Amino acid sequence: MAPEARIKTVLKTSAAALCAGVVALSSFSLGAEAARRHHRSHHHHLPRLPAAPARALPYPQLPLPFEIAGAQYLPVTWADVKGWSEDNHLAAYKTFRGSCRTINAQTGISEPKALAGSLNEPCRLAKSLELSDDAKAKSFFEQNFAPLRISRLGEPDGFVTGYYEPVLEGSRTQTEIYNVPVYRRPSNLFVRGYKQDTLSLPNKGPVYRKIGRRKLVPYYDRGEIEDGKIAGRGLEIAWLKDPTDLLFAQIQGSAKIKFEDGSSVRLNYDAYNGYPYTAVGRILIERGIIPREEMSMQKIREWMTQNPDGAKELRRANRAYIFFREVNLSDKEEAVGAQGIPLTAGRSIAVDKALHVYGTPFFIEGELPIESERSKTPFRRLMIAQDTGSAIIGPARADLFFGAGQEAGRVSGRLRHPMQFVMLVPKSLDPSLRAARLPVPDPRPSQKIAKLFPQTDPAKDSDKDPKNPAAAVKPAEPNKAAATSTATAQDKDAAVAVANPVPLPEPRPNIKPDREQRKRVNPRSDQQ
């Protein structure tokens, strides 16, 4: 072979070998990089810095005994409770035992409030105590409860109204005289989070009706229901003579209806249509129809009887509408409250269920027009929370139950008065006992140390700092120039006598990141 041809053959062979080596090297590098990333993403991550240990608090966080939103309360002694010794404690004890029947029957505490569980202990004790002596009943409350004065935040007193069970004439069927329907809960009434057949629906919040399969809209208001939106569906429990009778039965939350054949039926609150309650009496006061000092249920009824057209408009101003259910009780028993037990006239009250627990005793003290509209009868009585109502809102707000009939309606209809509230809290939640377990704060430094190392306010120091631009532009008052110069001289003398303040440590060290380390560990490489 010629020398030139031999040289060309060698060059071609070398070039081919070189290309093959480059291809192999690049394939190896890409494969190694892919393997490295796969190993990193599937087997281990970059080491993370250990988490900083939890900083120990200087004092333990002890839970509060209980907390009532929007309330202020003050522990008091029994001697501070005016009229406590003169009350009939035995009657209150019997009413309290009635509430304990439902409390003892509960297998688990469904109430999130701390007071719910604490009532179990005194209720278990009351279950075995058949007391017949007032002194022993008084001792029972004093040994198992602690008095706590309570009111709305910023207000000294609470507020009470009265309610009763109306006794009305009615009919099982519609006639020319009895043509006002009393409805039970409709089947198309929905409350979010509750089943349709739930026995106790909330008395607050929105209520809906279903259109089609999924669409929910607000339920009918009073005007729409009175115009017949739910008529003819078999929801009528009974029929009344006057729509005013139905309005007052709905305001009271219960009623007893007597029929012409001598039988009767008792109705109790079951649900409402989702609209807030509007007091018709307040509307009459605002319009100047009835003076505030003369307002009562009797005055409202008289005006509505004399003004039927105005009564219709007044009823519809209260868009809330109440649905009832039949309650099987004998005529000797009182109406049933929201706790599910018969109420006791003069001892049962309705409270705000969102804040309080059924079975809680409250001592209510003040003056009420019990004997007449202008009388000031002392009212100092231990009451038991056994009911609720949509208009009862607040920590020191109660509706006093006075029984059934016209006389009870006359008394309860004129109650709108401020009263003192003392809440009886079980000893296990006594705030004073819990406060004794709180740790004592660390002792303050001595006066000598405080003078040598004063801790000044940084905001005030910035005003005196000449480097602060805000302090430089602050104009000086001309009429206080002499006082300013005197104060400056005093500050200089004080600065000489007192040492410089000790600088506080920084909350965390200011460590600048190492650029070389940032180059070595690129956080974005993990995200590719």
TrEMBL record:
Catalytic activity entry: Exolytic cleavage of the (1->4)-beta-glycosidic linkage between N-acetylmuramic acid (MurNAc) and N-acetylglucosamine (GlcNAc) residues in peptidoglycan, from either the reducing or the non-reducing ends of the peptidoglycan chains, with concomitant formation of a 1,6-anhydrobond in the MurNAc residue
Gene Ontology cellular-component terms listed: outer membrane
GO BP terms: cell wall organization; peptidoglycan catabolic process; peptidoglycan turnover
InterPro entries documented for this protein: 3D_dom (IPR010611), MltA (IPR026044), MltA_B (IPR005300), RlpA-like_sf (IPR036908)
MF annotations from Gene Ontology: hydrolase activity, hydrolyzing O-glycosyl compounds; peptidoglycan lytic transglycosylase activity
Bias (Basic and acidic residues): 458-467, 509-519
Pfam families: 3D, MltA
Domain Lytic transglycosylase MltA stretches: 167-325
Region (Disordered): 437-528
EC number: 4.2.2.n1
Domain of life: Bacteria
Keywords, sorted A to Z: Cell wall biogenesis/degradation, Lyase
Designated name of the protein: peptidoglycan lytic exotransglycosylase
